[in-house]
Amino acid sequence: MPSRPNRFPLACFTLLFGAVRLGAAEPGVDVRALVARSDLHYPGAVERSEDGMPIGNGRMGSLVWTTPTALHFQVNRNDVQPISCETSSFFERNSDYMGGCGFVDVDLGMAGVDVFTAQNSPQHLSIADGLLTIAGRGVTARIVAWPHRDVFAIELDDRRAIPQPLAVSLRMLRYAGQYHAALETQNRNHIVTIRTRQHTATSQLHIRGDRIILTQEFREGAHVAKSAVAIAVVGRMAKATFVHDAEVRLAAPAGAGRVSILVASAATLNAGDDVIAAALAGIDATGGRSFDQLASETAGWWRAFWARGWIELHSRDGVADYVAENYHYYLYLMGATSRGRFPTKFNGMLWNTAGDLRTWGAQHWFANLSCLYEALFASNRLELLDPMFDMYSGMFDAAAVAARQQWGSEGIYIPETVWFDGLARLPDDVAAEMRELYLLRKPWPQRSDRFMAYARTRLPHSSRWNWWGGGSWVEGNWAPTERGFGPYGPVTHILGTTAKVAYLFWRRYEYTLDREWLKTRAYPMIKGAAEFYRHFPNVRRGEDGRMHIHHVNSNESVVGARDTDEDLSAMRAIFAVAGRAAEILDVDPELRGQWTEFLGRLAPLPTSSDSDAIKPADYTGPRVFVRGRTPVVNGRGFTPDGNSLPMWFFDLCNLDSRDADMTALANATFDRALRGGPPSADTPVGVLSKIAIAGAALGRVDATRHLIPNQMRSLTAEREGAYRGGRPLLNRLSLREGHQAFDAQRLGRAAEALQLALLNSSPPGPAQEPAIRLFAAWPAEWDATFMLRARGGFVITAAHKDGRIGSAEIHSEAGAACRLHNPWPGKEVTLTRDGTTTGRIRGALLVFPTRIGERVRLERAN
After folding, report:
1. pTM
2. Structural contact between residues 139 and 115, judged by C-beta atoms closer than 8 angstroms
3. Cα separation, 206 vs 191, whole angstroms
């Protein structure tokens, strides 16, 4: 078993210190060679499936791993959603599931002769081309996930002296001998049904000529979800047979040379859709293409993907090179998992290998989801954000109902933890009592038997029912236990997620200036979030004339507090953005005035100098942000949660802030978070932490030099009991969240920080005009060239070498005026537009017009 993936030797750093043209060929930067440095290479087979190689086309994915005579896959999809928000069948934590379609095993072996061994069986994943190559004794496998339809293409080249027969098995993810009235009929038709209270999961094996198929159908109440996997062997005759109740197989005779296997999948939430036909259509869509043709088309897709943005880094100690390798690998993972109907899950993505099990289940936590998605704006991969936006937009109506039912408010309410389809509509009597209990208007001990009976059938991970803790089975009955803080749980009273989701919709507008997006997609979400806070019953004017919020959480660690950092930051941003969006669209003039007035009356952010601050009694340090004000029901921590840092998320703290006090507070808070002293090579950074992002936003060079690589390395084990303690696996994924909860959260957080250090286009405050900074938090000894997206609809390429900034090129996609902090302070700057020098400008802030599609090159004059 290899101890670590082998790195590809780094080619000499070929940075052109000057203008770098956008497009397919960038002078001085071989993008394919650059990206190839991030490839995975194993010298031999791995012991655990968790260390397998990840392949995916954005909708369908699998880790690929080997045993001595076989290749193994678990086909996964983000749109396999067996459980909806209406479920009452999963009241034990970690019992809910999603994503899995079926196991696929490709057996190449001969009894007693191993094909894939721990040594001398190299495995290579080319992320530049999306091609996985696995070499065994006399057999080589090549695998791609075809981007144009949901198909894995597998080519086997058997060069053994005595070629062996090929067997391709398709297996169900779940099997149990449960009694059903129609059991004999099910047995005859190769059907297995697993019942979990009111939820059923029905798997069925099929043979259609020389193709084998596995379907799944999930039902509970009105909810239906279906999936299918179909397999065909191409280039050799194959016979299909049922092996047993849970497995169907294609067997092909021995033959030398190449043979291909096509594995297609499909899924739907529509009971009337023919999911088998959809999967078979994927196979048919290959249209007789050879494996080489499918691999070429796959490589072409990835070539276009990489051309849209990249980062080349080099430092003498190799740390910068390591950072770039992990950055491009993160982008590969997102390109391979986030092109479907729903966002990829933080706890598994498309990489599960052990069936349905994934710690934390099927719901989405925004804090975790944000780790994967926030870096995609500046990476210039906006299309990978679409599944996230589509999911949250899709639950708009449910969120509007939830705002009224649960909180007695208006607008929309999106909780921190939520099903793919939002929150369920509650019975009116349960909703009425919930409002009274959760708003602290009815004492918790007075909750009714009816309310508790309803609550006992709900999943404790759900935001609404998170005051449930664990539980146990007692005399055949599930006996849940409460956390002991009344209606509060870690996520029950997190309100800021609604504003955070809406703010990401606004952020996409900032990066594109797409007015149609603002009108049809972003503004309804932004307006809904603003109206939720404006009408929230526990936002009230205090004796000081300010608007205060009561009985809410600051992320998961402070519950039942007043004036939390999360909510006051959220309100500062969402009211400002709502007003600006309405102004741009020329709508809702009356609401604009109300939002502006509310914003003007908002209580100040909580700090340690407040007499009622949540802080240690003996604190005597500098003035810093804190998580809220008393009274508080229960709280851990002092300064803002490093996994959230709402002041930074909502653009209240950055280099361009016009509020000197806010900037001083931000820097003092950042320093307080690093109580071990300034960042160093030994400073640990948590998987979910935003501390590197905060440092980069403030221009702190040591955050780039140390915190970004340390977060990628994951210096401490955060999940004892998980494989490798939750630290990085051979494939650079981790199991920080627990068993089978594959994630790349640390890579996403570090990627966002890296991009900020190179290209910071944050506005001075929410809804204000941004200005671009190049290399604002960059170590002088790190060389860099990048292509990234900035707010204002600009794609920027720039270079930094030997401590100096070279020229830069700005591609204007929206035709907006560009505002750029002069990269060469005090010097004149030459502008060249589409190859023609047009003049010079000077000043600390350079402001110049652009046209749609124009490329503007900036160089230091003389």
Report:
1. 0.96
2. yes
3. 9
